[in-house]
């Protein structure tokens, strides 16, 4: 539609959404279910475009673990335990390593 030579948009178009924590556990699980495939698709895209090794581990709030990657978890464990980690990441890395050692994959 035109108004004096200018086009008038009928919709707002694609809007940027604010990222904030989802408070309700059920809604959080629904969001993960909807977005998990998109994350896996992006990981595969990065792997293909950049010729990079990609390993993606997702821990859900319900305790489920989702894994996508080239490497076996055994290889990832060895790599993480042998690398020098940046200061401040040790607590999180310890948490991840503990979870990985408990998994039977």
Automatic annotation (TrEMBL):
Molecular-function GO term, any one:
RNA polymerase II cis-regulatory region sequence-specific DNA binding
Chief location bin:
nucleus
Annotated SUPFAM superfamilies: SRF-like
Subcellular location as annotated? Nucleus
**This protein's GO CC annotations:** nucleus
Keyword Isomerase recorded: no
Question: Which keywords describe this protein according to UniProt?
Answer: DNA-binding, Nucleus, Transcription, Transcription regulation
Under Pfam families, the record lists: SRF-TF
Leader sequence segment = none
In its UniProt entry, what is this protein called? MADS-box domain-containing protein
Write down the species.
Answer: Arachis hypogaea (Peanut)
